[in-house]
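Hi R.,

Here's the chain you asked about this morning:
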Amino acid sequence: MKNSIIKRTISTIAAGFLVITSIPPVAGEVMTAKAAITLQTSPSDTQKTGTVNGYHHEIWQADTPNSSTMTLAESGGGFTTSWKCGPNGSRGNFLARRGLFYGRNTGKHWQDHGNFTCQFDCEWSAGSSGNSRICIYGWTENPLVEYYIIEDWKNWVPSSGNAKQATIDGSTYDIFTNAMNSYNITGTNGPFTQYISVRKNKRTSGTISIYKHFETWESMGMKMGDFYEVAFNVEGWESDGQANVKKNIITTGTIPDPTDGPTEPVTEPSDGVYFNETFESGAGKFEGRGEASVTTDSKNYYSGSKSLFVSGRKDYWNGAAITLDSSKFKPGQTYSLSTAVLQKSGSPVDIKFTMQQGSGNSAEYHEIATVNAKSGEWTKVENTSFTIPSGSSDLILYVEAPDSYTDFYIDDVLAAVKGKESSVKTGGGTVEGKSVVTEPTTQPEKGTRGDFDGDGIIDSFDLLLARKALTKSFAGSSKAINLTIADVNGDGSSTIADIVTLGNYLKGKVNKFPERKVTTTTTTKPVITTTTAKPISGDGYMKQIANDMVINAPSNFTQNRGGVDYGKMEKKTYYSKDGKMNKNMNVLLPPGYNSNEKYPVLYVLHGIFGDETSMPGMGIQTMYGNLVADGKAEKMIIVFPAMFTGSGSPGFNSDSARKYDLIREDIENSIMPYMEQNYSVKTGKENTAITGFSMGGREALYTGITRSETYGYVGAACPAPGIFETTDAYMHHDGNMQPSQFKPSSSQAMILISAAQNDGVVKEYPSTYHNALSQNGVEHLWQIIPQGDHGGATVTPHMYNFLRYVFKAK
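And here is the predicted structure, written out as tokens:
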């Protein structure tokens, strides 16, 4: 609060921010505490600073006729404090904080000190006047930045209409900046910037991953400078209050790997149930995730008399969440997890049960179970054999609707020992006060054209969802596009033209959708071929495996199994030389990764508008783990980079296409050196592979064919147009080469292209790559998936085939 305190002022015109500062803190006297020390400020003595037990402290007040106190704990960084800055004609500002102080002109970035975290526990209260908060606070220089990580607040909190969101420590934070011009740590009045994170789900205890906020800010372009200080801070503006900071442990250095050391066994409960939440006494430990709110409901419930109603969802991942007790839920152990769900959107909706481990940019998400829940029917969602991935920590269990914004209800959430089934039966329970057993419904399963949210009304919400659905299909969604809904203009496919038609309908430019074209569907046998005419690439390996290419992956390959090690996913940030920016990637380490052993590397690329999370979201970690467990795949490291390389945002234009093409150079110049420096990897083309989906398929082919001396294995699922000059439904592609140039300069063990028989997005363009390779005499595998779509129905069999045979040619 001091040194450019965030506070609220109201004039006859508008409300805004005001900055009030005091003298910058100085190191003060260093003392070793053997007993509690009490500090007091007054109107004539407004500031006390010093260092005790290795923690720098400050108490400060301004513009108040009263006194305030701060008592330092006998050990550690804890303290108690009380302040009186209002109401009843009083006024003023106050703060008390303890933390680590480095001072000015150190030349050291926060990363030079290590990963800052704070374990805190604070009991506090404040009156109804003014505003107050508990937070992490500090400054940097070059650039000059004052930062706040606000965990709890009373009466008012700073906000911004331009805030971005990030999930850190199990909660969404609003993240934004304020341009300031006031007194600051340089000792003068001048410009600086505030960086602010505000926690949505307020809390008074826990662990604050300070470094993850720093990482997130910098990934958003909010650069940190020379590190000045970090402290746990209690603030008040025109308020009265008191706080007991029972714990304040700020640490630096490398965070220990959660896999280090043995995992303590969990003592199984006598009844086999770790918890069974029925919401009879309220929400319990469940809370809203993202923008969602949770309340109990007494008209819709599966058992008892209440359920938890989840509403106000503004994104697919918004839902209901509970943080799991780390003493009961351990990495590597297997559990039964179940819940009953109800949604009343008017159409079937996928409901997903998910486990999050970690937080911020390093968070990982593991599907427990997904069901397609009918409208108006209580539905069971269950996995009786879910294994928590090894190395997991900060576990959060949550329920979401991954393709709908609908409200929903949950009840009878059960966490039990492996194999224990819930008593929930789909079709039971109470809906709108009536006990029901749902009979088979006659409502249409496929939906109505243009009605993306299934509420029976076509409005602007459907346009928003239409855009999201199309974008997700480009990026790599495991859910197929429902053309009955998405084909608004009736041409038999889902493209931007459908978005335009829907927009014109909502604007009143057209009063009905075009008639659907009458098409005849022909069922054909799957096409799986290998080209051998005058081969200049290939040594017979593709001929050996051609007859083993499948069009359906076995179901036990795509589902989590008990006792299987699915490896460890790590979120990494690296500097891209070609993009001149920091970029993110996910790195999947194989089961039993050992730094003393070297592993081949597979690069997997996502679709347009996607990022490093898109392809992991299509279940590749599960696919790979099951194949390794069955002895059908080599152990390898799989890298999922964010492809877009450069400034700006992706779109359907030539500039964006060039920045996607730069992933070729980005892997070669930045990612590969990073992998060799930080992981135990094998090098050489026989140990390097690349594949991708849609735009990622295009880039995998472009990269793999033009860098054949680097990649021995190349794949593509539903590859997008653009390697050759062409015009599709979205844009004109300038092209990178002529079809006659599309051939590797050296032999490659495997080139696999998988296409969908009915792809409404890239249509028949994958065949242009197949034809060019054939005409150029390049041996390759070409397969058409009869049931395929522009998504998971093609990606899954493609990855099943590719993972089984990559790195096996002799």
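One quick note: The first helix runs from residue 110 to 113.

Cheers,
M.
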